[in-house]
Amino acid sequence: MSESLTGDPQRLVELRAKIDAIDESVHRLLMQRATVIDTLIEVKGTARNGAAFRPGREASMMHELVARHGGHLPVTAVEHLWREIISTFTALQAPFSVHATPMEGDLMAAVDTARFYFGFSVPLLMEATAQDVVATIEAGGDKLGILPLEGLYPWWQGLRKAQIVCRLPFIEAENRPAGRPAVVIAPPLADPVSPEITCYRVDGLSAMAPVSEGLTILSQAPYGTGLFSALVATREGVDAITARLSHGLDIAPVGGYAPTIPYPNGVQTASTPSAKL
Ligand SMILES: O=C(O)C(=O)C[C@]1(C(=O)O)C=C[C@@H](O)C=C1
Questions:
Q1: Do 131 and 91 have their domain in common?
Q2: What is the pLDDT of residues 19-68, one digit of tens each?
Q3: Are residues 173 and 119 in the same domain?
Q4: Is-contact 215 232, C-beta < 8 A?
Q5: Which residues contact 211 (CB under 8 A, 6 or more apart)?
Q6: Do residues 258 and 56 make contact, with C-beta atoms less than 8 angstroms apart?
Q7: Ligand 1 site: residues with CB under 6 angstroms?
Q8: 161 and 68 in a common domain
Q9: Is residue 3 part of a domain?
Q10: In this predicted structure, what is the pLDDT of residue 108?
């Protein structure tokens, strides 16, 4: 910082005026964004369950956000602001609730994840277990569920109508906030788009699934007597799973998601500005 500016009260007044003008523009633009809600409702017909939520569109918006990002702001702070905006816009079209469960017993992590990605405009209900979240979403209605990928219960075996629609976190960076691995499940969406990456429930494994090229083992857990179930994600089809894991497995698609976004520079925190800026 230049010495001559330190303690200059006039300069501070000018900078605050600049911040006020920017804040006013941001606020006016947000209100302008909200004027499209009524037309969105008309065009999309949000009277039906799940009619407002478009996970594919949200994923591409996050990709664009990361692509254009630069400067001092931590990318996850901007991500969080947009998640609040998008989630609020979804709820304004068709109210919905979010259902979550402690992540390996960690209630705070589950609340952080739900609020980071779905904001404070939507009700958050905590369920006792992952199975309860699945049962709640399976029952239908305007609800989304957040399921942890850690843990030793194969909750994905309960997915029938409900499907995986996104993977969290969207942005992959070291030490990011709300970074616990999870997926979002939803009842059948009004306007489903085939995701780039498909998730499969793979039952009947005689051992834990090994790491293999082209397959991501999102989670796996024992069930029955000596059997394992895996939640697998791949851009390839069922054949890739049988070829790499085993034949004779019970495999079913359970939704999918858009690719997550690597952020190689990591998350710059507010307290550690990057020297590169
Ligand atoms: O693009 C839409 O379909 C919208 O409803 C808008 C919007 C947004 O606020 O940008 C809100 C909800 C959807 O999940 C995706 C995007």
A1: yes
A2: 999 999 999 999 999 999 989 888 888 656 567 999 999 999 999 999 99
A3: yes
A4: yes
A5: 217
A6: yes
A7: 40, 52-54, 57-58, 86, 89-90, 93
A8: yes
A9: no
A10: 97
